[in-house]
Amino acid sequence: MMRVRVLLTLVLIADLVWQFEAKPTLACSFPPVCKGCERTDCVPPFYKGKICRLTCRNSHRQESGNTSRTCDGHEWSGKALECKDLRCEYPEDYDTEGTSREGCMPPYHNGETCTYTCKEGFSRADGDYSITCEEGKWSGEPLECDAAVARLMSFIMMADENKDKITALGLQEE
């Protein structure tokens, strides 16, 4: 009876040892979060040797770090992935008096173009008719529209249309 107990105890101990050795222990906590990136093939538990893959989102570009991180014991190998946001902020500086904007809505993605026109009664004094979001910044100069320039342009056009009348009055340039 004693031998059976000892034998049973040894079997139980052997079973516990086997279960402990057969199950790997968690080695890493959840991988660091990075702004503007997404994880794939990266679900817990994170045993030693587990690989997590990271990519920058569509509106971001990789600046530094690794796109693959491996649990190598108690921490993740490599450097954290850093992704730069390529979207542009609202183009406040470009909404000037006398202008109206067309062709773009937030969020403003890399490569998106906004078109500006002068409102009725205003004419272009300076700047660009369109701007493009380029890696997080707007290209081009703000369109400036001026009512005085519009009046001057209108006067010149009227004078050109009325050349014959001006000539008849003897007011032409010599």
UniProtKB/TrEMBL annotation:
<keyword id="KW-0768">Sushi</keyword>
<feature type="disulfide bond">
    <location>
        <begin position="28"/>
        <end position="71"/>
    </location>
</feature>
<keyword id="KW-1015">Disulfide bond</keyword>
<feature type="domain" description="Sushi">
    <location>
        <begin position="26"/>
        <end position="85"/>
    </location>
</feature>
<dbReference type="Pfam" id="PF00084">
    <property type="entry name" value="Sushi"/>
</dbReference>
<dbReference type="InterPro" id="IPR000436">
    <property type="entry name" value="Sushi_SCR_CCP_dom"/>
</dbReference>
<dbReference type="InterPro" id="IPR035976">
    <property type="entry name" value="Sushi/SCR/CCP_sf"/>
</dbReference>
<feature type="disulfide bond">
    <location>
        <begin position="118"/>
        <end position="145"/>
    </location>
</feature>
<feature type="domain" description="Sushi">
    <location>
        <begin position="86"/>
        <end position="147"/>
    </location>
</feature>
<protein>
    <submittedName>
        <fullName>E-selectin-like</fullName>
    </submittedName>
</protein>
<feature type="disulfide bond">
    <location>
        <begin position="56"/>
        <end position="83"/>
    </location>
</feature>
<keyword id="KW-0732">Signal</keyword>
<feature type="signal peptide">
    <location>
        <begin position="1"/>
        <end position="22"/>
    </location>
</feature>
